[in-house]
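Thread title: Can someone regenerate the structure for this chain?

I was given the following input by a collaborator and told the matching structure tokens would be attached. They weren't. Posting the sequence so someone can regenerate them.
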Amino acid sequence: MCGEVSCRVAAGEVLAVVGFNGAGKSTVVRTLAGRQQPLAGDVRVHGMPVMPDAVLFRRQVAVLFDEDVFFPALTVREHLLLVARGHALDPAEDLVDAELLFFGLVERADAVPDALSSGQRRRLLLAAAFIRPSSLLILDEPEQRLDPVMRDALAQRIQQRAVAGTAVVLVTHDPRLLVRTATACLVIDDIVQAVDTERGAQIIAGS
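Best answer:
Regenerated them for you:
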């Protein structure tokens, strides 16, 4: 169980949260996303308290967790169109086509979630997270159930979002994804360590 955690992620940065299983990584990012209340202190996005039910918060924050949450009667394409149109993206159809192509889902575009493999469902969740605009993107082990080629493509997409100004919080067990994307690391262990991967600086706080 990790102790106190204090961190700040600015636009264009990728903060990787790493540590052993059960150390508290998912707890940290679920708290950042407003999925659970902090035990102490607070979490703010653009200086505002985290309010996951607020329209403004939902417009700023996109998340990917391990839950497969789908509308069972909607196809892959319909899921992505719902997200795109819900965020007033135009042209929604073209943007959806681009995500289907990127995540290798073109041939499964008319399938419902129950007809997909676990890897395809993971790629659909990723497509839904990446298609929507956000200033903060939270990804909890996005590499799960992805093959090596798709993991490399995912690293490229994360880099592109950061270059475009999105702040990214990434929980990962994949060393290659970590090295290719992270600008800083938060190590959840007996002690909490914040490491700036570009400048080599390290801040250690006792747990």
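The two ends are 9 Å apart (CA to CA).
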